[in-house]
Amino acid sequence: MERTAQLTARPTTYGVAYDPPVTTTSLHARAARVLEANWTGGSTVPSRNLYPHQWSWDSAFIAIGLRHVSPLRAQTELETLFAAQWADGRVPHIVFNPSVPLDAYFPSPDFWRSSTAGRPAGAPRTVQTSGIVQPPVHALAAWLVHRADPALSRTRGFLARMYPRLAAWHRYLLHRRDLGGAGLACVVHPWEQGMDNSPCWDAPLARITPAPARSFRRADLDHGAAEDRPTDLDYGRYVRLAADYRDGGYRDGGYRDGPGGEHDAGGAEFAVEDPAFNALLIASEHALARIAEELGAAGSARRARAERLTEALVTRLWDAEAGMFLCRDLRGGDALVPERGVCGLIPLLLPRLPRDIAAALVRTLRGPHFSLGDRTRLVPSYDLLGEAFDPHRYWRGPAWFNTNWLLERGLRAHGETAAADALRTALLRLADATDFAEYVDPYTGEPCGASGFGWTAALALDLCHRPPAPHERQKLDKSPQNDVSAADTGTFDRSDRGGDRG
């Protein structure tokens, strides 16, 4: 493998520039090799060692990158995941590979017992899965994958087959997971939100009695340093929550079927309305509208739903004093959690966010809590000034490539082109320099977690294919054959941007 770029840096107006410059043609080839190495024949593992199964939101991000090298494999990635969808509409966060030994990952299939404990909720009998979910990036991924090769997509009936499954997935979240009754989806476990170990979960988790340490064995510590992973105490709480949910038959609250449609908050011990989870649901509702139109149906109802969800997001989770969105703890007095996580910045992805809120989010990104363009190379996962900040510990400070990819799209959608270009450059250079690390120290760029990480390689591929602005083109050696339509440089098509943003 060729020599990677050194992590020497010099500050620029909006970010950090690195020497020597990265060549995107070389980066493109190396990223494609990572995805090839992680391919199992029907899906892509995040990491061969640490994460040897199929993960839900990983596969969505991986499909977004795969579409540039193999649209067919990108379609297959999503089809394989949704083949494990439950009858109630949920998409499980892990689909287990039966050829992987049980002790290679915990919690393993014998912990989740999906085919038995999940039977009342319609878990599939032919494949083993977990019983919880992850953020709904999938409709956005499906739309982008379709656009990569519309002819292939139409010939295979890709969208026609995916649309009812995606609609059922959103219906599950909008009804069964509206535990607060205000229209937003709730997560019932930190693993569902994807940012597993964030300090935003500390207060809601503190009420959970941890499972005894002797009752489980952590396989993650075989592949990563203990000081970079969740503590045993927190892991015990994760296990307790998952076991209780399993033992309750994976039952959710939300709205009961019937003419009254009465609200049922259920008995969830952990119930949090998260801004990133809901922002991705809204983004995917916009994408579902485009998919419906491609299939000859009307998309107006879904766009209207996305607008209502955006309004609910602002009403329920926006905190003007913090200058960002916060999580709402339904079991903790229905109060906002006063912790600044990157989850509270992800709604910048939404193209119709009110202008004043989008502007405030950009100020917060650049301010002392996240310091984009000043002290940090990528946006950290947690408040730099927070008491719990740790630049290396899982989701308690390190910078992740998927959240920064989302923020790059958000900056671009709201006209912050120079900042978006600089963040794009930083993402590409750090992906190159760290051998596609799982996450990095936000200050130094030091790689953490697994290398050859699936979504890091996939999203680097996607950024290679999206042309930078003219001034940024001078900084990167950009191969013309990697360019795609400028319509793909934002979150949605141009017809979905701007307009009625308050």
UniProtKB/TrEMBL annotation:
Superkingdom assignment: Bacteria
Entry's family note: Belongs to the glycosyl hydrolase 63 family.
Record SUPFAM superfamilies: Six-hairpin glycosidases (SSF48208)
Protein name as annotated: Mannosylglycerate hydrolase MGH1-like glycoside hydrolase domain-containing protein
Glycosyltransferase keyword on record: no
Keywords (A to Z) from UniProt: Glycosidase, Hydrolase
Region (Disordered): 469-502
Listed Basic and acidic residues bias regions: 469-480, 491-502
Biological source species: Streptomyces musisoli
Keyword Glycosyltransferase: no
Lineage, opening ranks: Bacteria, Bacillati, Actinomycetota, Actinomycetes, Kitasatosporales
Domain called Mannosylglycerate hydrolase MGH1-like glycoside hydrolase: residue spans: 51-456
